[in-house]
Amino acid sequence: MERLDKLKELLKASPTDSFLNHALALEYLKLNQSKSARAVFEALLERDPDYVGSYYHLAKLLVADGETDMAIKWYEKGMEKAKKAGDSHSFNELQAAYEDLVD
Predict the structure, then answer these.
(1) How far apart are CA 56 and CA 72, in angstroms?
(2) Angle 68-85/88-102 helices, nearest 10 degrees?
(3) How far apart are CA 10 and CA 7, in angstroms?
(4) 66: region left, alpha or beta (phi > 0 left; psi from -120 to 50 alpha)
(5) Per-residue pLDDT at 58
(6) Smaller CB count within 10 Å for the chain: N or C?
(7) What topology does CATH give the domain 2-102?
(8) What is the 3 state secondary structure string of the chain?
């Protein structure tokens, strides 16, 4: 729990820091707190839709929770943002996961 507490403390000073919010969501995932992780990822992407790295993790979480249709939508949004950003690595990662899901 120490890492989780440290992230929360850092976020008090910078609540809209996308990197810290992404790290917090990943920490929730490690602790099997998927509802908390989902809420953080969704809030992060609403506030900063260009934070491409979170799309993959949110969609994977939704797949694990059986929300395939919602996951597909997040993969599609992530691919669009990655393409606009010229981030081919993230685009390819998102596309591969997306194709595994829809094929």
Answers:
(1) 10
(2) 160
(3) 5
(4) left
(5) 98
(6) C
(7) 1.25.40
(8) CHHHHHHHHHHHHCCCCHHHHHHHHHHHHHCCCHHHHHHHHHHHHHHCCCCCHHHHHHHHHHHHCCCHHHHHHHHHHHHHHHHHHCCHHHHHHHHHHHHHHHC
Of the candidates 83, 17, 11, 14, the one whose C-alpha atom is nearest the C-alpha of residue 52 is 83
pLDDT tens figures, 2-53: 999 999 999 999 999 999 999 999 999 999 999 999 999 999 999 999 999 9
Residue 32 corresponds to which tokens in the numbers above?
């099997």
One-letter amino acid for residue 37 of the chain: A
In the block, tokens 């799309």 appear at 55
Q: Which two tokens stand for residue 15?
A: 């609540």
